[in-house]
Every structure is written in C-alpha cells, then in structure tokens.
Amino acid sequence: MKKPSIPRLSEQIATPLQAIASPQRVAILLAIGRGEACVCHLETALGWRQAYISQHLMSLRKADILTDRRAGRYVYYRLTNASILDLLTGAATLSGLSAEAVSALINTRVYPACECPHCAPT
Prior knowledge:
Elements: H1 6-19, H2 23-32, E1 37-38, H3 39-46, H4 50-62, E2 66-71, E3 74-79, H5 83-94, H6 99-106
Antiparallel strand pairs: 1-3, 2-3
Helix pairs in contact: 2-3, 5-6
C-alpha cells in the first residue's frame, strides 16, 4: 500500500477546518453540541435570523460535518462525528479559554424561547 503524501494528507485535514473556520459556524457547532437542534433552537441560542443560520447549516452539511433528520416541518441537525467538539475544545484551549467552560457549554441545552414540538410538546 502506497503511503499518502504530506500535501495530500494536509489537504484532507484542511477540508473540515476550512468548513468551520468562521466564528459563526463555530457558534452553531457549539450550540448544537452533543445533542441536536432545529433552526428555531439556533435562532433562540444565537439571536440570528433563520435565513442566515440556514446558509451556514447548508455549508456544514455539504462538508459532512452535520447530518439532519426531518420530523414533520422541522429539521433537526446533529454532528456527523462528535470528535469535532474535541477539536473545538482544543482550539479554545489554544486561545486561552477554559476547556471546562467549553465542555459545559456543549453539554448544556436550554432553548427557553423555542416553541418547536421538541421543546414545547403539545
């Protein structure tokens, strides 16, 4: 078996990093955390408009970072591979932030203003 070259490996490693490079996409990933979230969850958590969030979600899905499931008129997003959270926690540590604070954030899901069936069952 032929050993992959450094340029080829670096290209493969850079692909997901490029997809999450913006602070907005990092925020979306942190808001989703280890669970799942619909756009209304993300609107509540981030204070952004639905159309803006949807553009970023589409890019993250195309990069195979997020996967989705439909439940009626709601689409719920979750991480394809939870190890991306380890990458974000590591980046936070490199930035001088507390890994514990990031871990607490990604493990806590509270969307008080969200009215989807997941948050406000009938």
